[in-house]
Write a structure and sequence with these properties.
single chain, 490 residues, mainly alpha, Growth Hormone, Chain: A, 0% strand, globular, MFS_trans_sf, transmembrane helix, transport
């Protein structure tokens, strides 16, 4: 693996401006630690700001819309779809949730193989527009079977968005810059989840004529579908790209962006490799643990997302209107708390204590939903459960990305983890069954057990990785991940 500096012509033409003696001193110190570093902290800070502004706004918007489009079925369900499409018969609602995930799982790895070759802008904008068309079509179905078909198509088109986005974020940022940024990316989805209920309540006030368009739930799909299509078209002109395709960077900025990652992880630029070689990268057993972590967080996250309004309505006993409105405050709390803890994770340079803490909060929350009979206490439990389950998704992704070296391997890791997340979605969409109302005891018990498993698995793996770091420092084992100087960051 090469640790050479950038081509001489780039360095020679670069206009390196040192603003003060302090900048000179810090540049000398940095160069002693990293012989490839020939830029000032001020230059790096300015570049980071530019990358943030170019990568995140549209990426966050489309991810928020994707989660809104896949989870709005719960709001539509309690807004009249349950009876209009006869989803109140047997397990039809659970089946409608379930069919989203097989295609979602199968399309993860192919999508991440495509995105780097076509580019994020072309591929992601196509996917966004396509699932917007599918959501729009849901507003016109007249029976539950076509809804199942459209839910399956939605899963296929949404499959590439999350792993592709995570892959792109990890390609731009250093190890201890990722947690806060992935958390920020995920909170965009939490904003959609948090205000989705209020948006759905507003859209259900639309009534047109006396036919099927008078059925208020249809307008949730029609308006949100049109919004997604519009954003999909706009994203072709505004969405960010991978470093090697980023034409918006000046030569000097491109050099700094590349060398930052090379110095941090010893990671060379992306090169196309044969499919067989790419698939061999996934044989690392640590990847199974990372996938287990994400499976657990997805099981809990999808369960609370799909059944949150139903638990408020049928489980705790709030009215339809109150249930939709009450979906927002727990997510607002989650956004603030998860961003704060992600910042703390980058600050203390440790991931596992944050994951363990958030898993413990989720356990406490579900116990409060289950045990007391007072609605206010159970609602507080919902706050804790939403925070504990939803915030750990970003924490687990950052944890896994920080233990992985190589653009190709991280691409496979992103796809594998989101595939495991799809399996978690299958579990999460079936553990809360309508026949278990109002306590939903089986679903809560499954979630409690899985959160406990997440805590044990994360702690055990983290202690193992710390031991590997120590052995590498003592020279008792070879280079970690085959890269000299690399250390895990649990």
């Amino acid at each position: 693996m090469s640790f050479d500096k950038s081509p001489p012509e780039i360095v020679e033409k670069a206009d390196i401006t040192v603003n003060s003696d302090d900048d000179n001193r810090r540049l000398s110190q940095a160069s002693a630690l990293h012989p490839n570093q020939d830029w000032t902290p001020a230059e790096e800070k300015a570049l980071l700001r530019r990358i943030d502004l170019h990568i995140f706004p549209m990426l966050c918007a489309v991810f928020a819309l994707s989660l809104l489009d896949r989870s709005n079925i719960s709001a539509a369900y309690i807004s009249g779809m349950k009876t209009d499409l006869h989803f109140n018969i047997g397990a039809r609602y659970s089946i409608a949730l379930l069919v989203f995930f097989p295609a979602f799982a199968l399309c993860q790895i192919p999508s991440n193989l495509i995105i780097r070759r076509l580019g994020a802008r072309t591929w992601l904008s196509f996917l966004i527009t396509a699932f917007g068309v599918v959501v729009l079509g849901m507003g016109f179905v007249k029976s539950w079977i076509p809804m199942l078909v459209l839910r399956a198509l939605l899963g296929a088109f949404e499959a590439g968005l999350l792993p592709g986005s995570i892959y792109m974020i990890a390609s731009w940022y250093k190890t201890f810059e990722t947690a806060s940024r992935i958390a920020f990316f995920y909170t965009s989805a939490l904003v959609a989840s948090g205000f989705g209920g209020i948006l759905a309540y507003g859209l259900t006030s639309i009534h047109v004529g006396n036919g099927m368009y008078k059925q208020s739930w249809r307008w949730i799909y029609i308006i949100e579908g049109l919004m997604t299509i519009a954003v999909g078209i706009a994203s072709f002109f505004t969405i960010g790209e991978f470093p090697e395709k980023a034409r918006w960077l000046k030569p000097r900025e491109a050099h700094i962006a590349r060398m930052r990652i090379l110095n941090d992880r010893g990671e060379a630029e992306y090169k196309k490799v044969p499919l067989t070689q790419t698939l061999r990268l996934i044989r690392d057993p640590k990847l199974l643990l990372f996938c287990l972590q994400y499976f657990i967080t997805s099981t809990s996250g999808y369960a609370i997302g799909y059944f949150f309004p139903i638990i408020l309505n049928e489980g705790i006993g709030f009215s339809y209107t109150t249930s939709l409105i009450l979906t927002s405050p727990p997510y607002i709390f989650t956004i603030i708390a998860s961003l704060g803890l992600a910042w703390l994770s980058d600050k203390i340079r440790m991931r596992w204590p944050i994951i363990v803490f958030q898993g413990s909060v989720a356990i406490a929350g579900y116990l409060l939903i289950l045990l007391p009979k007072i609605p206010g206490v159970r609602l507080f439990g919902v706050f804790l459960a939403v925070f504990g389950c939803q915030s750990n998704a970003a924490a687990v992704v950052a944890y896994a990305q920080n233990q992985t070296v190589g653009t190709e391997k991280r691409s496979m890791l992103s796809a594998l983890m989101v595939t495991a997340g799809a399996a978690g979605g299958v579990t999460g969409s079936t553990i809360f069954r309508s026949q278990d109302a109002p306590l939903y005891l089986p679903g809560i018990c499954v979630t409690l057990v899985t959160q406990l498993l997440l805590i044990v698995a994360t702690f055990s793996m983290s202690m193992y990785l710390r031991r590997q770091n120590r052995l590498a420092d003592e020279g008792k084992i070879g280079p970690l991940e085959g890269v000299e100087g690399f250390r895990y960051s649990p």
